[in-house]
């Protein structure tokens, strides 16, 4: 019996440890069946089937731990090699990790063995990634994210609906025509086009994008604080939140899962009220916990508390039916405003980097190169179809429904077009439910891995195409503004701009023309010559369009302003010689002529008309002439919107085009020592910059 047992163990490819073998033969654990070997008179007990099963399970666990240890050693070794090598080659380390995982996986050299444990270990990298992202969210940025959550919800729902409908209704019509040019595998494609549940599963997985790939791209390109970066992050977070309902809905569609509305109600209540209670408790307890930990002045305890919070909130969310990344992100948001944020981020950053590397390697290990080569027409067609569908929906929603510019929308669409890591979870559930054939599941997994690995390249494309579209849109906007500007400058409405009209515009409605001729006004003359392309002495609408950038943004603008204001060396004193506008050199300056700027100017105009402002220090200079009736001389406004200059002219308020925070522009407009400067910009950042 002992010999038969040893043979069975060897045939089972099991190498029992010494401890396991000892326990296998221990008398107290075996059936009391004795056999006597007469030569030695040694009593021996025959092991039972249950004992053999226990021993095999224990031996398998020992082997699994050994394999996991070998895999971790390989992961660390690969991290040490891949990151420096990627920097030398100037490529993203993500592609290196994917390549190493593919080479070392079960379809390659077979170095990585315990794939399930490795996947779970790699998933912690995504948990820490979302935890750090939550840490970096200020209340203002979180509010901006909320503005784009509708975009994420619309993208998720419409992508599922569009792909499902396309597979079921459009696919059967297109497939025969496509097969004339592309060698598609009918055995793989037909089930998708004929099975509604499988089509829904495929659409749900395809609607997801990869936080692990996209977030580093946003950080690397400095897009996090921009509108397109904020929109991309909001869409990713909404997708992470939507994973849990998708995993609940898929068994329902397949005829499994909760069988009554009461059971479904319990799941929804756990996910909403349960996790809401966790958030409320966390907002009170987390900071107190870190206060206690920080008081211990133990760096080890602080690191342990950081890991506990990130993983613990993920576990709590998972137990309540949400994804672990949602819980980790919520934990980060709760700690974002604490005084420990910087230290928490510094402590967890190394774990995030290492575990994300493991995630990418385990993702690469699931790629079957042989299957990809055999089914490359079907694989390539599927990837292009999904990329195109997500691109079109994201661009259309962002540009036409949710306030993004065309350039911003195309950047978001390209970045999020690839697949997502949670698609693996959806495919695994579909396989467990018997919806997804093994070969089709392997091909879909390969398509997600390949599309995810394209994210860095899509990021480069997003930057290039976005910049080109932005330049085209800027040129179109410049033409529109040039037309507005032409109507403002052309005071007499005769369809052309004379030199004197241009000079008056540069002075914001004031400033007497130079009597010293044009010799002392070289820069202004050069600007006129540059705009007057045909040399007829006047500027047409088309000529102003072509020279708009030079007039408004060009390098000559500051010099031209100075020359127009001073008339070269021959400039007369303010108000001399007749009814021209005479703005005091110490006038109050209003930066911005929007709603608040107009209110400020109205108050200043009323004060000047009924309750004069304090006397100007340049009063003696101003006595020689008076301003035009109704025009204020004790204040001046600056704005970079040409349409607001027209508003100022209509209200008899001197509004000069440009940034009033520029000292050169103030001097060019004749303001020497302003008594006060009122900043009315709507943008907080611009307000702060104007005070520097």
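Q: What amino acid sequence fits the structure above?
A:
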């Amino acid at each position: 019996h002992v010999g038969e047992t040893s043979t069975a163990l060897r045939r089972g490819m099991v190498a029992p440890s010494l401890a396991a073998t000892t326990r296998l033969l221990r008398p107290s654990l075996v059936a009391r069946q004795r056999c006597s070997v007469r030569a030695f008179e040694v009593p021996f007990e025959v092991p039972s089937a249950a004992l053999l099963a226990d021993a095999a399970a224990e031996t398998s666990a020992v082997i699994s731990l050994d394999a996991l240890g070998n895999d971790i050693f390989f992961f660390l070794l690969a991290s040490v090699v891949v990151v420096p090598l990627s920097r030398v080659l100037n490529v993203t380390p993500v592609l290196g990790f994917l390549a190493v995982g593919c080479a070392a996986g079960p379809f390659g050299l077979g170095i990585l063995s315990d794939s399930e444990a490795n996947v779970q270990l790699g998933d912690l990298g995504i948990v820490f990634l979302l935890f750090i992202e939550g840490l970096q969210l200020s209340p203002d940025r979180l509010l901006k994210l909320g503005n784009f959550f509708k975009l994420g919800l619309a993208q998720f729902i419409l992508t599922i609906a569009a792909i499902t409908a396309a597979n079921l209704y459009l696919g059967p019509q297109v497939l025969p025509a496509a097969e004339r040019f592309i060698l598609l595998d009918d055995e793989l494609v037909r089930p998708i086009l004929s099975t509604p549940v499988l089509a829904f599963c495929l659409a749900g997985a395809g609607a997801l994008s990869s936080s692990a790939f996209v977030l580093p791209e946003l950080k690397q390109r400095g897009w996090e604080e921009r509108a397109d970066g904020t929109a991309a992050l909001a869409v990713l977070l909404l997708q992470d939140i939507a994973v849990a309902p998708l995993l609940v809905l898929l068994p329902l569609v397949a005829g499994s899962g909760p069988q009554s509305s009461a059971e479904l109600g319990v799941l929804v209540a756990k996910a909403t009220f349960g996790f809401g209670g966790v958030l409320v408790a966390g907002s009170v307890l987390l900071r107190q916990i870190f206060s206690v930990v920080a008081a211990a002045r133990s760096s080890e305890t602080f690191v342990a508390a950081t890991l506990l919070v990130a993983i613990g909130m993920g576990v709590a969310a998972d137990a309540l039916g949400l994804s672990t990344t949602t819980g980790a992100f919520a934990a980060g948001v709760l700690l974002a405003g604490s005084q420990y944020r910087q230290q928490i981020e510094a402590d967890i950053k190394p774990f995030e980097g290492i575990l994300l590397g493991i995630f990418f390697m385990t993702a690469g290990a699931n790629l079957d190169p042989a299957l990809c080569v055999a089914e490359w027409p079907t694989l390539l067609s599927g990837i292009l179809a999904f990329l195109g569908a997500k691109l079109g929906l994201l661009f259309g929603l962002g540009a036409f429904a949710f306030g993004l510019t065309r350039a911003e929308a195309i950047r978001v669409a390209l970045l999020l077009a690839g697949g997502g890591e949670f698609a693996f979870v959806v495919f695994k559930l579909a396989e467990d439910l018997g919806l997804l054939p093994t070969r089709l599941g392997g091909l879909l997994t390969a398509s997600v891995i390949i599309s995810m690995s394209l994210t860095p390249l899509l990021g480069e494309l997003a930057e290039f195409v976005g910049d080109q579209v932005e330049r085209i849109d800027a040129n179109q906007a410049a033409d529109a503004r040039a037309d507005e500007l032409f109507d403002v400058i052309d005071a007499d409405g005769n369809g052309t701009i004379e030199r004197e009209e241009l000079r008056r515009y540069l002075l914001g409605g004031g400033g007497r023309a130079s009597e010293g001729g044009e010799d002392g006004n070289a820069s202004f003359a050069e600007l006129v010559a540059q705009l007057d392309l045909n040399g007829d002495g006047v500027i047409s609408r088309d000529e102003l369009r072509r020279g708009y950038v030079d007039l408004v943004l060009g390098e000559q603008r500051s010099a031209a302003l100075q020359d127009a204001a001073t008339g070269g060396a021959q400039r007369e004193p303010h108000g001399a010689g007749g009814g021209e506008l005479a703005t005091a050199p110490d006038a109050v300056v209003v930066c911005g002529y929007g709603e608040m700027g107009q209110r400020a100017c109205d108050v200043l105009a009323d004060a000047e008309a009924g309750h004069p402002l304090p006397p100007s220090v340049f009063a003696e200079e101003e006595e020689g002439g008076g301003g035009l009736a109704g025009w204020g001389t004790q204040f001046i406004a600056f704005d970079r919107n040409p349409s607001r200059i027209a508003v100022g002219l209509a209200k008899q308020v001197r509004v000069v085009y440009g940034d009033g925070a520029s000292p050169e522009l103030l001097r060019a407009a004749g303001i020497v020592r302003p008594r006060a400067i009122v900043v009315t910009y709507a943008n907080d950042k611009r307000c702060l910059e104007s005070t520097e």
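Q: And what stands out in the fold?
A: Confidence is low (pLDDT under 50) at residues 1-44, 509-522, 553-581, 612-630.
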